[in-house]
Amino acid sequence: MFSMGAGELVIVLIVLLIAVGPGKMPTLMQALGKGLREFRRASNELRKQAGIDELLRDDPLGVRSLQRDIARAPAPRRPVALSEEDRLREQPDGGVDLDDARARVARRRAEREQSSEATADREQEEAVGPLPREELSALSEDDA
Known about the structure:
Layout: H1 6-20, H2 25-50, H3 52-58, H4 63-71, H5 84-90, H6 96-128, H7 133-143
């Protein structure tokens, strides 16, 4: 939270020295030290009264055992030998992105061809006009 480097601390002390003055600086530091000691004493007393230290020592939730389990290194895994086909599928020569881009381009072309065929059929139907029901039924009978 308050991670101050040495340079930052020097700047704060210089500003403090200018603001307070060299005569009152020792008195200010003494008061600051007393305040920090009193704060530590009060926080330690509160921890003792609340029993926080005993709770942390007892570890009722099993946090320490979980930390030990996590810290244990997993067993080394044997390398798996891939067939050439699997290797090419996993690591294509052109690269995964290039193969993916080629597949997307092929899909778009197929979609355009389908949509252009549908557009051509519609244009032909508009030019000829809709077929009468009798002709449609005759066409469907011929197909069967």
